[in-house]
Amino acid sequence: xxxxxxxxxxxxxxxxxxNSQVKKKYEWKSASSGGYTYRYVSNDPTNARFYQLKxxxxxxxxxxxxxxxxxxxxxxxxxxxxxxxxxxxLAHYLEHMLFKGTDKFGTLDWNKExxxxxxxxxxxxxxxxxxxxxxxxxxxxxxDKVSGEAAKYAIANEYDKVMASMGAQGTNAFTSFEQTxxxxxxxxxxxxxxxxxxxxRFRNPIxxxxxxxxxAVYEEKNRTLDNDGRKVFEKMFENLFPNSYGKQTTIGTVExxxxxxxxxxxxxxxxxxxxxxxxxxLSGDFNPDEMVKKIDRSFAYMKAKPVxxxxxxxxxxxxxxxxxxxxxPNPESIMIGFRFPGANTSDAQMLNLLxxxxxxxxxxxxxxxxxxxxxxxxxxxxxxxxxxxxxxxLQGNPIKGQSLDDVKALMIAEIEKLKKGDFxxxxxxxxxxxxxxxxxxxxxxxGSRAGALMDAFxxxxxxxxxxxxxxxxxxxxxxQVMAFAKKYLGNNYVVVYKRQGEDKNKLKVEKPTITAVxxxxxxxxxxxxxxxxxxxxxxxxxxxxxxxxxARAKSGNLDVLSVxxxxxxxxxxxxxxxxxxxxxxxxxxxAEYIQFLAxxxxxxxxxxxxFYKLAGSFRISVSGEITTVNITGLxxxxxxxxxxxxxxxxxxxxxxxxxxxxxxxxKKSRENAKLNKASIMQGLVTYAQYGPSNPFxxxxxxxxxxxxxxxxxxxxxxxxxxxxxxxxxYGPASANTIATxxxxxxxxxxxxxxxxEGPTFAKVVQSKNQVLFANYDMVQxxxxxxxxxxxxxVQEVPAIELFNxxxxxxxxxxxxxxxxxxxxxxxxxxxVYNGPAKKDDRYTMLxxxxxxxxxxxxxxxxxxxxxxxLPESEKVIEVAKANMRxxxxxxxxxxxxxxxxxxxxxxxxxxxxxRKNTFESIDKLQFTDIKKFHETELRNKPYTYCVVASEAKxxxxxxxxxxxxxxxxxxxxxxx
Length: 976
Description:
- Helix content is about 45%, strand content about 20%.
- It has a six-stranded mixed β-sheet, with helices on both faces. Strands 14-15-19-16-18-17 form a six-stranded mixed β-sheet, sandwiched between helices. A six-stranded mixed β-sheet has the order 22-23-21-24-20-25, with helices on both faces.
- Helix 1 packs across helix 15.
- Among the domains are: about 320-440 and about 460-500, Cytochrome Bc1 Complex, Chain A, domain 1 (2-Layer Sandwich); about 545-655 and about 710-745, Cytochrome Bc1 Complex, Chain A, domain 1 (2-Layer Sandwich), CATH 3.30.830; about 770-975, CATH 3.30.830.10.
- It contains 38 helices and 25 strands.
- By secondary structure, it is of the alpha+beta class.
């Protein structure tokens, strides 16, 4: 399931801005064009057209010709809240099964396959109604046996193959409370193929290869049991919305996962997958008059039928705070939730503003009073709007020695300030100004447009209200905000304490016995052949010409590289230094420290407020060998925004209290990192690549951190400007204009200091198999295979790209088909040969399987088999080559990415767009090329296995079978 919280926040940023100081008029209007009538909202920056076809199908089109691609969503207004009570997780099951084909594709012989699938249907019904465990095991053996027979007639992943062959990217789907959405990003010239496939896909979906896909869902469930954040969220909704959103989870209960009903899934499909409950949302390069005709022709077969209304008992008002606990290995945190009306109400629109007053990244009450003053390790507030109800969620993380009740008290105190009006009068206008900037940024992306329109459709938010939000917010007074806060924010909340420790209620979905099924890689249905033979118009690839696409100028003795923004008034300015944490461990800490500093004339809080008023921001990011300062905002405020940063850097004053707070926060963050399995795995992988002394643990020790002074940190940042660096600018002004302005805003020294010397980290040469193990309390086991390969070679790039597309980088690849589709050993698995960032570095092979701990041996054996013997499939090669070709034809590197593509090419010793060489090599490549690569780089080579799992669930003797076992301590992994 997608994290819809993030989408909700993006939707707010996208839909809540105004392009003018003058209020615009937003009205629903009707128009006709190309024989179709549509509705639209006046002054809508997305230019979206809303059609309703004769069968009730909603079509929403937002054309933008910037790139020859289209983001497509097929959205169904049904999700976990409409799951039957006795079959929770059903909408999510169905989402998975919509990738399995129909009676026309995904099958070798439907007439022979169907009787076996019918038999499987009946066996599952017997299985579900049987309580005796011995009899259930016997029935499951029959299910496994018949499924194996049926799979001989199935073509696994044929949907993924057909989409990949037309150049699709991001093939996926997600299910949430009230939406199930299927997503594709396709070349604009593949529309006819795309619509033909989608129309067939939803005509008569067949639930084939079900038991292995169900096992993938088991794995997904087990991943959620290892996800403390997910458990907190589910506990919050269970208590905040006990009659609606909290009654059942999207993935469903363990008991229902064990007892699925294919007949119930089909019934659900027939009930909700009807045209009057579906929206097709497209944004990208197309003619809307032509597009709506094509969609109408493709989906006219769908017949409307009444959709049962979702009914529930209204949630009872909360008269007192409800407290709950969740336990797990991750660091402690707290979440507080308040209930609000649904997304299409005026109160939900007001809630958007309320969330921004509390948290906006710069000048919100939480930002200034809790984070800036370092009273908490982290604090945020955000709204989550759904059709029936919305919620305001507060999240906080304690500093060292702080209780969760302390965190709660600090956040509630800020709520009280909100109710009393203890915030600046100009905060609301500043929020509107920043939303104006956000809409400009979001409207640049066809993907963001489509996502916002899709969420509004499934949540049934009036698009006119969405478009008009900025003007509506600009009219809101401080008194109205105070009254609104007093109305909703009392002692009527749910608080979830995330405790650190063993979850004694943790369950897991047990592993059934599954025999690997056929995937029939070489097979193609007549339908797929028909789709592949459909003609398409040619799209010519566009390669970068670094001499023409980038304007150059000089500011003193600094190079200025510029790409002009001709779309809007956004500017992005970058100072890029060829030095980073490898050379100076202080830089990452200094980049944090400056956020808390004042100058002789402005406090740290005043500086944040001023940036926010200007709709500007700065960020200093430090990697191993590169430090980048990014200043962004509106061009009308360009000089003020840049000067504000430069003044802060030049005049910031040492603040010992801020440094003490930062040190305490850093120590707590370090403790928390040791409780995070993703951080632990990252440390293991870096150890495998570079050895005991590596970039991951190249950090200050705790003693060095204690000894750190404010002057050292400030000096590290100020010293950056003395080194040679490059200026990159994307915005409305010309390169010469920017270069001239920077002579005074960012003067360069007469001569540059030589870059500092520091440790350089080289990838190790592996001579034997090794196993690096870290213990972590979890249901699953995660395994990464690491092998450092050859150095960078331009000539090898095309074959490596083809290998990745063929072997393990996507759902149509050999790894995914084998480990997930055939053997049901993982929910997530991939393998990719990663390229280096610079010419004197080496490639790294990285393969991954996340699986149940009791499947570890099977998972390792399966990946090892693929790394040893590369399966040959001419059909998969054809799909991989087609995807590469069509993706490159329609890829457009735009905006500031042009500059960074050039800078990255320089690091590899290139002076031209490497994609051109790859594209021209595709047709010459054959299976023999990638087989040669596989044998040279991967076959029978030593690997380092990185394993994060629970010692209680993994047998040490098993790990020893794969190589020399080293159990790494957290201190060794992290360097402190």
